[in-house]
Amino acid sequence: MNVTEYAPPNLLDRLLAPIGECLTPEVAQKFVNLQADAVVQARLEELAAKSTAGSLTDAERAEYDSYIHTLDVLAVLQAKARGVLKAHGSG
Questions:
Q1: Could you tell me how far CA 71 lies from the centroid of its own chain?
Q2: pLDDT at 9
Q3: I want to staple 31 with a disulfide (CB 3.0 to 4.6 A). Which of 6, 51, 75, 81 is the partner?
């Protein structure tokens, strides 16, 4: 394989790999089931709409970026959790 064919692994995925290795099926199921509550979901939708419209304040941009980064971490953890469940025949 030459260097141009190599796709480096996602840094976040690599950093969270040890957590995925520690998940029991029970804990993995809890990660898979994680969802934002109605208040957080409404705020995310509000910020997303303002972002699309280009009307976020600096504080709102920082808040929105924080949510997006948090959701990225949760998505990686949920993917690892689904892998644990699949390996244990639970998913």
A1: 4
A2: 63
A3: 81
Mean pLDDT of 42-62: 97
pTM (whole model) above 0.90: no
Residue 74 is assigned to a structural domain of this protein: yes
Asked whether the predicted pLDDT for residue 63 surpasses 50, the reply is yes
User: How far is residue 28's CA from residue 26's CA, in Å, rounded to a whole number?
Assistant: 5
> Higher-confidence residue: 85 or 90?
85
Domain presence at residue 7: no
Q: What radius of gyration do the chain's Cα atoms show?
A: 17
Domain tally, the chain: 1
Under DSSP, the state recorded for 4 is G
CATH number of the domain enclosing 53: 1.10.287
Is 24 strand, coil or helix? coil
Asked if residue 10 belongs to a domain, the reply is: no
Name the residue range of residue 59's domain.
35-91
